[in-house]
Specification:
By secondary structure, this protein is α/β, with parallel strands linked by helices. The protein contains 17 helices and 14 strands. The strands form 3 sheets. Strands 7-8-6-5-4-3-2-1-9 form a 9-stranded mixed beta sheet, with helices on both faces. Strands 10-11-12 form a 3-stranded antiparallel beta sheet, with no helix packed on it. A two-stranded antiparallel sheet has the order 13-14. Helix 4 runs parallel beside helix 5.
Length: 397
């Protein structure tokens, strides 16, 4: 385990920096309330007390980004910036503008940089969208999860069902061409008609990107405690599969096509370039409490608590909580695991002989496209998408 500021980036990691996609992720750890299913590194005001304020976090962020640029030597301008959390929209337009200014001053932005912020619909407004658009943000991702009030109650979501659609319209009116809505499917008590209504609302919003994730019951969450007590059942795998097929069919019919197992876009321009950087083995600096980074096969992560994060940076030290150098085997596993989830698939020559043979068997089982395999790529079929993790295990075993 590392101690603060003992980050070591060997020459092999820095070689090629700038030839691969380079992004900056900023983690905003603040939330108004804690959702029952969430295990992210987030804190409410009551949990933090006076130990860490947004102003302290922002000052720490500026220091981390400056130290990051120094540590990387001559870093490339950021191709993408993604401000996530937590609830970044709690910072308001001025706070989000300050975050982007800090990235711009430390790294610079590519001329065509994609700049995304996540937002909770309840903490957005036309004024916020106008302000962040003027500041240089190009993309907004809104947490919707569901349009059904009883599903939102199970998830402990606080927004009103119609607010995400209204927020999406406000973002588009402010000049955002690229707006995403997030859905969660498979929540106990969610009926087929509930999911259909949620999808109808998404399509009514006119967004050009949708992310949809199966509900996962994470250890340590309020949702996990309710499941353990028998108050609600675990999500059912058969229901999850049927839900996925329904949402894929409805989104495809509306012109949003999958480009990653859990993501659909109306065009190539609407795809999230920042996340594609993750999936295609790019480099990124993750700034903020608990944020993870990767450069040239070296991965590290920051200390989690905002108070420790800011205190470490006050001493002019990077807040590194740990790091690891990925082995060739690690990088191969991650490449297969991530690229196979993409609609473009994985080059067949990225697999060893055993993996290529297993790919042909997977195609015979209807999990990989035979036509694409003949063209030199391993691409999941519709059935394969439902069993993506199992297909990965077959190809790297």
């Amino acid at each position: 385990m590392s101690t603060p500021d003992d980050l070591h980036l060997p020459d092999f990691a820095l070689q090629g920096l700038g030839t691969r996609p380079f992004g900056v992720y900023v983690h905003v750890p603040f939330c108004a309330t804690r959702c029952g299913y969430c295990d992210f590194n987030t804190y409410t005001a009551g949990e933090l007390g006076s130990g860490a304020a947004p102003e302290d976090w922002l000052e720490g962020l500026r220091k981390e980004l400056d130290l990051a640029a120094q540590r990387l030597g001559r870093p490339p301008a950021a191709d993408t910036v993604f401000v996530g959390g937590g609830t970044p929209s709690l910072l308001g337009a001025d706070g989000l503008a300050a975050v982007l200014d800090a990235v711009r001053q430390s790294f610079g932005l590519a001329a065509d940089a994609e700049v995304t912020t996540e937002s909770n619909p309840e903490s957005t407004s036309p004024e916020l969208f106008a302000g962040i658009r003027d500041a240089g943000y190009t993309r907004v991702s809104l947490g919707m999860q569901s349009a059904a009030p009883h599903v939102l109650r199970v998830l402990d979501r606080t927004h009103t069902p119609g607010r995400p659609v209204a927020a999406a319209a406000e973002a588009r009116a402010a000049g955002f061409d690229h707006v995403n809505l997030d859905l969660i499917y498979g929540t106990p008590g969610e009926r087929t008609e509930d999911l259909q209504a949620s999808l109808d609302a998404v399509l009514e919003a006119g967004v050009d990107h949708v992310s949809a994730y199966a509900l996962i019951v994470e250890d340590g969450t309020a949702l996990a405690r309710r499941v353990r007590k028998g108050e609600i059942p675990m999500p059912d795998d058969d229901v999850l599969a049927a839900d996925y097929e329904l949402l894929d069919a409805m989104l495809e019919k509306a012109g949003l096509r999958w480009y990653e197992v859990s993501n659909w876009a109306a065009s190539e321009q609407a795809r999230c370039r920042h996340n594609l950087g993750y999936w295609l083995g790019g480099d990124w600096w993750g700034a903020g409490p608990g944020a993870h980074s990767h450069v040239g096969g070296v991965r590290w992560w920051n200390v989690k608590h905002p108070a420790r994060y800011t205190a470490t940076l006050a001493d002019a030290a990077l807040p590194v909580g740990g790091q690891e150098s990925l082995t060739a085997e690690d990088r191969q596993l991650e490449r297969v695991m991530l690229e196979l989830r993409l609609a473009d698939g994985l080059p067949l020559d990225a697999l060893d002989d055993d993996g290529a043979r297993e790919a042909r068997r997977a195609a015979a089982d209807g999990l990989l496209s035979t036509r694409d395999l003949d063209g030199g790529r391993a691409v999941l079929t519709d059935r394969g998408r439902l069993l993506a993790d199992a297909v990965v295990r077959r190809l790297v075993s």
